[in-house]
Amino acid sequence: MPAAPPRICGCGRRVPAGVRCACQVRRDREHDARRPSAVARGYGSKWREARAGFLAKHPTCCRCGKPATVVHHTTPHRGDRALFWNRALWAPVCQPCHDGPCQAEEKRP
Predict the structure, then answer these.
(1) Is 53 within a domain?
(2) Which CA distances in Å does 71 have to 8, 10, 27, 28?
(3) Are 21 and 11 in contact (CB under 8 A)?
(4) Of 13-22, 44-53, 82-91, 98-107, which gets the smallest average pLDDT?
(5) Could you tell me if 68 and 25 lie in one domain?
(6) Torsion angle of C-alpha atoms 27, 29, 30, 36, degrees rounded to 10
(7) Sign, Cα dihedral of 65, 18, 102, 36
(8) How many CB atoms are closer than 10 A to CB 73?
(9) Separation between Cα atoms, residue 84 and residue 87, nearest integer Å
(10) What is the DSSP letter of 89?
(11) What is the pTM for the complete model shown?
(12) How many CA atoms lie within 13 A of 88 on its CB side?
């Protein structure tokens, strides 16, 4: 099977298939430097305890049926504590479903 061809990044650079362009890496690093820590965003010990309890009661992914490892906020809370702690807006999902379709749906306008 032939290797995938290189792609052209938005910055104009030719990038091998499966490799991230230096501009993407730099942009992500700059974003992470400005982002508050997980604890500052509400994901501290209280969250870890609530998450473990929720996953114990809801052990399977609501999308594919695999074991759930992530509690997904179905409505993005964007720092709103009321939305963050509203358990009616939590969904058990596996990591692949969370990082793929769930995140893609949130990014849609």
Answers:
(1) yes
(2) 36, 33, 27, 24
(3) yes
(4) 98-107
(5) no
(6) 130
(7) positive
(8) 17
(9) 8
(10) G
(11) 0.71
(12) 2
* Beta carbons of 75 and 105 less than 8 angstroms apart: no
Determine the Cα–Cα distance for residues 92 and 50; give it in Å rounded to an integer: 12
Three-state DSSP class for residue 53:
helix
Give the single-character DSSP code of 63: T
Sign for the pseudo-dihedral over CA of 64, 76, 107, 71: negative
Residue 7 shares a structural domain with residue 53: no
Instruction: Please report how many Cα atoms fall inside a 13 Å half-sphere around the Cα of residue 4, on the Cβ side.
Output: 8
Say how far apart CA 101 and CA 105 lie, in whole Å. 6
Task: For 42-96, write each residue's pLDDT tens digit.
Answer: 889 999 999 999 999 999 999 999 999 999 999 988 889 999 999 999 999 999 9
Do residues 29 and 56 both lie within one domain?
A: no
